């Protein structure tokens, strides 16, 4: 009987860990949204006018010639949580240091959001990201219905590198 209880407990632990992890992610997303809103008064109104967005409360990035970054986030459409997303990035070139930042990917069109949901969207953050500042959300430049805004939180990184971000979407209820 004890063995059966341990098997049930062992099988329940990953789901419980995912739930705790998702709850922490949701709290971190709320905090990041507040920081974006404090930095840019146009942010909240811009978000309401979008088809959807993916928000990463913390992306960690580092490199020395070869670099990488990663983070987890939540995806919203029509103001509702529809899934989770993982960001991975690889770069090569002149770079040194490490940094952390919050990032939001804005989807202006349904076709852009659909490409993202089908995992057919790769982004070159160095070429398209703008730093969160007063009015940045309202004046963001969209390429193929997508814009990126970043909010640096810590660290320092100097780079002149080439690379891109890969985003992997998982709808709510699917394993990641």
Précis, in short:
With 176 residues, the chain is an alpha+beta fold.
Estimate the global geometry from the Cα principal axes. Answer: globular
Helicity range of the residues?
25-40%
Mean pLDDT, all residues: 79
The SSE order reads HHEEHEHEE
Please count the helical segments.
4
Task: Give a quick set of tags describing it.
48% strand, disordered N terminus, 4 helices, alpha+beta, 176 residues
Word description of this protein:
With 176 residues, this protein is of the alpha+beta class. It has one domain. The chain is 32% helix and 48% strand. The protein has helices at residues 2-39, 43-48, 110-117, 125-128; strands spanning 52-77, 80-107, 122-123, 129-131, 146-171. The two termini are 32 Å apart. Residues 1-16 have low confidence and may be disordered.
List the helices and strands and how they pair.
Layout: H1 2-39, H2 43-48, E1 52-77, E2 80-107, H3 110-117, E3 122-123, H4 125-128, E4 129-131, E5 146-171
Parallel strand pairs: 4-5
Antiparallel strand pairs: 1-2, 2-5, 3-5
